[in-house]
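Morning. Coffee machine broken again, so started the prediction first thing and wrote up yesterday's gels while waiting. Chain of 235 residues, entered below exactly as on the submission form.
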Amino acid sequence: MLTPTRPVLRSESGLYALERALQRRGFAVVAGADEAGRGACAGPLVAAAAVLPPGRRGEIEGLTDSKLLTAAARDRIFDRVVAVASAYAVIVIEAPEIDARGLHVCNLAAMRRALAALTVRPSYVLSDGFPVDGVGVPGLAVWKGDQVAACVAAASVLAKVSRDRIMTQLDMVYPQYGFAVHKGYSTAEHTAALERFGPSPVHRHSYQNVARAMDRDGSGVTPRGRAAGGPVVPV
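Came back before lunch.
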């Protein structure tokens, strides 16, 4: 498979340097992929892919790794990415699929699905941390890619904001866990609620801390006024 010669990065381009170097080497459409929720023990894994237009049109003020932004800044940049992106896609993988297939398999599958869902076919893919195979074009896994490449940072914001909104909606279904605050990560407050109430249908039951909190009969907790295993509220 064709790969670019070593690109020359221009420091003044900052977060956009890697994409522009690839574009100068003939890879006109560079897509970024990232995920959110990998470290959570409840809620879905969300992956996103984004293609930003070349030149000044694709520059987004304040764009960086979503984890380094405030919630308000993430929302603002999310809206800007949606407005200016040449293409973007968001994929949600629910907790039962993570339990059945494993986190790493689902992580790669989610990014692959997001890239496949783009309405513009990329000529090169940059991904955060893990290489994504099976997409039919060259790619590069970039360590801390959401702090290195603009398209990966854009995907990071799309995934993070989409997942946070899902978890806020799930908080209305399962208010006893505090999902709106910790977003399903294993904080002290979440651990205490998990031990008190047992796991819900949106917890990842294959995780050790969730399995330990499982009721003796394995039934877990039902959402208020609904049957266990009901549909997850969408974004």
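The chain has two domains: 13-168, 173-212. Going to sketch it on the whiteboard this afternoon.
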